[in-house]
Amino acid sequence: MRKYHIITHGCQMNDHDSERIAAILECMGYEKTENPDLADFILFNTCLVRENAELKVFGQVGALKGWREKDPDRILAISGCMMQTGPAVEIIREKYPQVDLVFGTKNIEKLPLLLHQLKEEGRVFDTSAYSVDGTDQELLFDRKSSFSAYVNIMTGCDNFCSYCIVPYARGRESSRPPREVLDEVESLVKSGYKEITLLGQNVNSYGKDFQVDFPSLLRKVAETSGIDRVRFMSSHPKDLSDDLIRVMTEFPNIERHFHLPLQSGSNKVLQEMNRHYTRDDYLHLVNKLRRAMPDITITTDIIVGFPGESEEDHQETLDLCRQVEFDNAFTFIYSIRPGTRAGKREDQVPDAIKSRRYQELCDVLYPIFNRKNRAMVGKKVYVLFDGQSKNDPEKISGRDSGYHLIHVPGDESLVGQICEAEIIEANSFALMGKVLDVKK
User: For residue 234, what pLDDT is reported?
Assistant: First the structure.
C-alpha cells in the first residue's frame, strides 16, 4: 500500500485543510505514515502570512530533492496559501524541479483529478478555484484527534488589513450554512468528541450570507447535547459584539478564553493597518470581557516594525500591553508580503530597529505572563489532555478552559480525558500540576 506524509505549516485552518487532504488520500488507498522516509507521497501544506514560513518551506522542499530522485514513482506536492500567489508558484516551478504537484486552498477536492493528470501528463500546477455539488466534501476528514475537532464555519476575509495576504490567498468571506455546521457538530458529539473549535479568518463576521450572526450560531452549538467544550477563533475587534459576550456568559461549556488580535497600540499605525478600531476601542472591549467574565484569559497578536512605525508608536504598543496585561501573545516582526499595500511602502523600518523593538516587547510581555501564571499556583482546574509533553516523555499536556498549557506526570491513558488538576508550579509559558480526579 502506498503511504503518505503531510507536513503542515500555519494556522488551525491549515491543520483542518490537512485533515481534508488526508481523508481524500485514504479514500484513494493511501496509508498514513509519520516517517517521511517511508512515504511515497509527501505534501507540504503551506502558510504565507510571514516570510519565515515561506523560507522554511523552500528549505524543506530543497532538502527532499534526494528523496524524490531515489524513486521515480514518488510524488512531492505543495498546497496551501503559499500556492495561491504567483511569485511563490513561479519560484517552485523554476527552481524546484523535484516538485510534481502544486495546488491551492480552493481546489483541495480536485486532488484525485490532479493526481490522475500528473500520471498522464507529468508535472501539474493548478491553483484555480474548484467546487463540487453537495456538502459531503465538507464532512470528509481524517481527524488527527478522536476527542477534539475543528469545524470550519467560514472561509476567506473581507477586512484587507494592509499587511495581510490572506484575503488574496483565501478569497472573500463565505459562510457555511448554519444547518450544515450544526449537523457536523452533532455528528462529532455523537462520535464522542468532547471539544469543538469553530474556525474562520474572522468568526465574528459569520453569517452575512444567511442573515444569521455568529452569537446565534455559537448559542446553538453550545446547546448541542453532550458537548463539553466549545472554542472559536479568530475574532476581529471591530466586530466583537455585546451579544457574543452575553452568549459566552450564559454557557459554561464555552471556554473562558478570548483571542483578540491587537497588532499595534498606536492609533496611527492601526489606521494605516486598516484595522478599523482605536486603542481606546480595544481597551473598552477588554474591560467589557473582564467585567462579564472575571476569569477570562485574553491572548493576542502583535506586529513590531510596521512600515512607518515610530519610536512613539512603539512605546504606545508597550504601554497598552502594560495596561491590558495579556495572558499570552503571538508576537511577530513585520515582514513584507508581496501584493499588500504595506509591502509597497518606502518607509520600511530597518531590521536592526525591528529586532530591538521586538526584544523590548518581549521584555514587557514575559514578566506579565510569568506573574499571571504564578497566580494560578494552588488553583484547581479542569484540563483536557491531548498528548505527551514535547519536552518530557514522562508528562502529559493539555489545556484548561482558559487555554493555559498544563503539564502533569502521567501516561497516555490520560489523553482524551477531562481531569481535575491542581497547579503546583508555573513559568511564563506553562503550568505544571498534578491530577486529582478524572471527570469523564
Answer: 87
Query: What residue ranges of the chain have pLDDT lower than 70?
Result: 86, 128-142, 439-440
Q: Label residue 360 exposed, middle or buried (CB < 10 Å: 0-12, 13-18, 19+).
A: middle
CA distance 172 to 308: 28
For residue 346, CA distances in Å to 101, 342, 421 come to: 36, 9, 52
Write the DSSP string, 189-210: HHTT--EEEEE-TTGGGTTTTT
Cα 232 from Cα 153, distance rounded (Å): 10
List, as one string, the DSSP characters of 389-431: -SS-TTEEEEE-TT--EEEEE--GGGTT-EEEEEEEEE-SS-E
CB-facing half-sphere around the CA of 159: CA atoms within 13 A: 30
Q: Count H helices, E strands: the chain?
A: 14, 19
Host H or E run for residue 8: strand 3-8
Task: Please report which helix (H) or strand (E) contains residue 251, including its range.
Answer: none
The reported pLDDT for the residue numbered 156 is 86
DSSP letters of 78-93? Answer: EEEGGGGSHHHHHHHH
Q: Which three cell numbers stand for residue 208?
A: 452575512
Q: Give the model's pLDDT for residue 137.
A: 42
- pLDDT the model gives residue 296: 97
**What gap in Å lies between CA 145 and CA 415, rounded to an integer?**
10
Does residue 175 have a cis peptide bond before it, meaning omega lies within 30 degrees of 0? no
**DSSP element (H, E) containing 297:** strand 297-304
List pLDDT tens digits, range 268-304: 999 999 999 999 999 999 999 999 999 999 999 999 9
Instruction: Report the distance separating Cα 74 and Cα 378, nearest Å.
Output: 54
Q: What is the pTM of this model?
A: 0.80
Q: Is 44 helix (H, G, I), strand (E, B) or coil?
A: strand
Q: Is 238 helix (H, G, I), strand (E, B) or coil?
A: helix
Integer-rounded Cα radius of gyration of the chain: 22
Give 283's Cβ-side CA count (13 Å radius).
15
Helix (H) or strand (E) holding 139: helix 136-139
Tally of CB atoms within 10 A around 98: 15
